[in-house]
Amino acid sequence: MAWPSKKLLILLVTVIATGLGLFIWQSHRAPTTGEAALKAVKSKISKHYVLPADEVPALATVTDTSKLSTPFFKGTKNGDQVLIYQKNHVAIIYRPSIDRIVSVGPVSIDAPPTALKQGNQ
Predict the structure, then answer these.
(1) Taking a C-beta distance cutoff of 8 angstroms, is the pair 45, 51 a contact?
(2) DSSP assignment, residue 54?
């Protein structure tokens, strides 16, 4: 059996190396959706802060700081992540770019009002 030409061998090795590199890069990227993202953010924050263990928090990402008007969000940047523990009344703003907690504060989320029934008046 004859060996392939040098050019074909180099091409084959390059394709395999590129594929392997993309596979490794993809497997080490930070999760971006759902439970995986929540787990990753909680893991990072828990290195700096003791998180409540009796509740699953809501996770939000700041995308437009110009729409944030409360003092709690002062100094927040786009890309910051917010863990909200409704039952424990605490919100935590985390900045992944520097791996730091930006702010922690109390939170009170009112239950949405129930729909009013329209009756004959």
Answers:
(1) yes
(2) S
The model's pTM is: 0.64
Q: How many CA atoms lie within 13 A of 108 on its CB side?
A: 0
pLDDT tens string 16-72: 767 666 666 666 655 556 788 899 999 999 999 999 999 999 999 999 988 888 888
Q: Which residue has the tokens 């940047």?
A: 77
Give the SS3 label for residue 59: strand
Q: What are phi and psi of 68, to 5 degrees?
A: -100, 120
Cα 41–chain centre separation: 6
Q: Is the sign of the CA dihedral 59, 64, 68, 72 positive or negative?
A: positive
Residue in this structure with the two tokens 């791996």, named with its chain if needed: 99
